[in-house]
Amino acid sequence: MAASIFRNARIILPDAIRDDLELVVHNGRISELRPRSDMPGAIDMDGNYLAPGFVDLHVHGAFGRDTMEASANAFSAICDFHARGGTTSLLLTTATAPFVDILAALSAVRDASIPQIAGVHMEGPFISREKAGAQNAAFICPPMPALVRRLLENRDVIRRITIAPEVEYAPEAIAQFAGAGINVSGGHSDCWDEQARTAFQRGMRSVTHTFNCMSSARRRGIHRVAGMLEFALSEPAISCELIADGHHVSPTLMRMVYWAKGALGICLVTDATAGAGLASGTTFRLGGRECVLENGACLLADKTALAGSAATMIELVRTMVRDADVPLHEAIAMASSNPAREIGLTAKGQIAAGNDADLVVLSPELLVKQVFVAGQAITTPNASGT
To answer: Is 271 part of the annotated catalytic residue set?
Structure first.
């Protein structure tokens, strides 16, 4: 197969944006990043940005479809929607549900042959009832040894798991999952500082949707003690998920986590649910609970809480640049190289020789113009937010 040369682009690297380079792609991989040449046959990028494909660690659904359907058709619809926002790799994310249904979703992901699917993020059922959020509390349970053993049989599919550090059996389960190469994230948690630290010592290296459904500093007796939030912000080795959709966290909170963690310590995630891509006023379900999309926000039907988001990754990037004053190349890293690093996708997330040619062409206004997976353009008709 002949090589493709991408020229006249503003190429976004982890530490800079370069307009004096061209990119060579051969057999689905980046073969060379070199000074601009005059070789014929190049693809003219017209001065647009060329970014690495986005990696979303937390995706429940889109277009009315949900990971828990355990259906290849549902998975395909979800991937198609998120590709429109520049996502070329994602973790299909389960919800708190009957354990047999979670196992069915894992099996269906294993059987799916969709290149964008990098595996599964298990969010629940090992979470706190006090911080359940939109998760279905009826199916919350502790990570008992028998359940952990069943999940470890699926370690080829599970890339990431959210656990509340304070629940019964959590420290042992965290150590087992981390030892099996599964990225452990603390979340939906009401833990105290020392419980978070124990989880960290056992292998927890991330927290799920920072600021949302997690404990913060409070009094215990006469003392004020940190919670999950403060532990995560203060521990350099912890990576923070952030839903920068304009609903979950305010600009001040976005700036707070940015200055606490730096460009390398944040992974942008959509936490998109089945409401993503639907018209305002449309109802959908999350973990068996009735939800509605209203003014761009996914809500429980009684409108008492958010139920994930309707966002795409490019929307999160724009929000970080516009509202949190984050340099573009750093916001792109939060959507690509950082999450790829978290789950061991060593050939994705950066424009570098040898990596997969998963690429996103962005206009100067940060709109998605074209998406490539393994060097092949995929159809991405205009969608809300792209």
So the answer is: yes
